[in-house]
């Protein structure tokens, strides 16, 4: 087919030869282009297809002329495509559409198809040039992306629901745990009150009994006229009353109702002043040793409360060695280069009490500073000893550590700021 109908007046002139040469070049170019191509007359009747069309569809010009495009179009698209193409042919407008074309193996590939009218100098359509560009990969990618988006949205919805369900279950578990913890705290509170009541009642009863017993003996001596024997009973009553006052003082310190009076303290001098008291407190069976570093800088603390803390630690060590043992009271200056064991980096005066007693398990160590916690039988202690030490240490800006091995002994260290 000629791209443009040859005029009957044309002969084998140079102009005709040039036209044929141009048509040959066009056909050669069209046959080897990557697109499927065709041309149609002004009315839209297809007159020529390039070789790519035949290679792809497996048809021939005769078959296409006889069967038309329905033989290569997908049945779901042929009517829509044909109607739009006829409209463009009738109006002379540019045609563009996307649809699948059948390959010679029976499969369908997607193509972007265009047809434009070629006009002469007067604006009349001389022929139509159509092309089909294979966009199967793009369509497949877009479809895969759509499916991915759809499945992603579905997965997001499912995952959101799963997380919402998990969150509801977690919230319910948290609520249950809070209720259980509240019940446990209440039970522990009642147990602590019971231990506190029993321990304090026992201690105060002993102290009151001492006061009442001394007063009764005083009355008897006075009634018998034995006035000279009264003084020692007065001293016994005063001693019991002082012990009661000391217990009340410990309770106030534990409750932090009694402010500390911090000042520079010579820890070695304080320990030396307590040696006799500590020996008397330990009694027989426990060997007491002192290892005091010299010189030792002053510590910033409450001396009276530090004395009480040391006495408490020594008493605890004594009670941990019912069959006797050895106990050391040590003082030294230490430099903590890094934060370790709950003690920040810095320089401290360290006061340590070490014993060779029965030691403590890890579980007992974790509760040792808890208020009212004690491993002693009911009535033998209030569980305020180490709690008071801990409360004092924190109020004084100091730190405390416990190291212990069962059946080998315990070491309690107080880190006092300079």
Task: Walk me through this protein's architecture.
The chain has 418 residues and is an alpha+beta fold. It folds into three domains: 14-134, 2-Layer Sandwich (Beta-Lactamase), CATH 3.30.450; 143-254; 263-417, 2-Layer Sandwich (Heat Shock Protein 90), CATH 3.30.565. The chain has helices spanning 14-32, 51-57, 61-67, 78-91, 136-223, 230-254, 267-273, 275-282, 303-319, 362-367, 385-395; strands spanning 36-40, 46-49, 95-102, 108-119, 125-134, 263-265, 286-292, 299-301, 325-336, 346-355, 399-405, 409-417. The strands form three sheets. A five-stranded antiparallel sheet has the order 2-1-5-4-3, with helices on both faces. Strands 7-9-10-12-11 form a five-stranded mixed sheet. The termini are far apart.
Topology:
Blueprint: H1 14-32, E1 36-40, E2 46-49, H2 51-57, H3 61-67, H4 78-91, E3 95-102, E4 108-119, E5 125-134, H5 136-223, H6 230-254, E6 263-265, H7 267-273, H8 275-282, E7 286-292, E8 299-301, H9 303-319, E9 325-336, E10 346-355, H10 362-367, H11 385-395, E11 399-405, E12 409-417
Parallel strand pairs: 7-9
Antiparallel strand pairs: 1-2, 1-5, 3-4, 4-5, 6-8, 9-10, 10-12, 11-12
Helix pairs in contact: 5-6, 6-11, 9-11
Q: What key attributes describe this structure?
A:
12 strands, Heat Shock Protein 90, 11 helices, five-stranded mixed β-sheet, Beta-Lactamase, five-stranded antiparallel β-sheet, rod-shaped, alpha+beta, 418 residues
What is the count of structural domains? 3
Provide the CATH topology of the largest domain. Answer: Heat Shock Protein 90
Strand content: 15-25%
Which CATH-level-2 architecture of the largest domain?
A: 2-Layer Sandwich
CATH class of the largest domain: Alpha Beta
Large-scale geometry: rod-shaped
- Report the major sheet: 5 strands, antiparallel
> What is the CATH homologous superfamily assignment of the largest domain?
Histidine kinase-like ATPase, C-terminal domain
Distance between the termini: 110 Å
Strand line-up across the major sheet: 2-1-5-4-3
Poorly predicted segments: 1-11
Main structural class: alpha+beta
Structure summary, number of beta strands: 12
The arrangement of helices and strands along the chain is HEEHHHEEEHHEHHEEHEEHHEE
In percent, how helical is the residue content? 40-55%
Radius of gyration: 53 Å
Please, what is the average pLDDT?
Answer: 80
Number of helices: 11
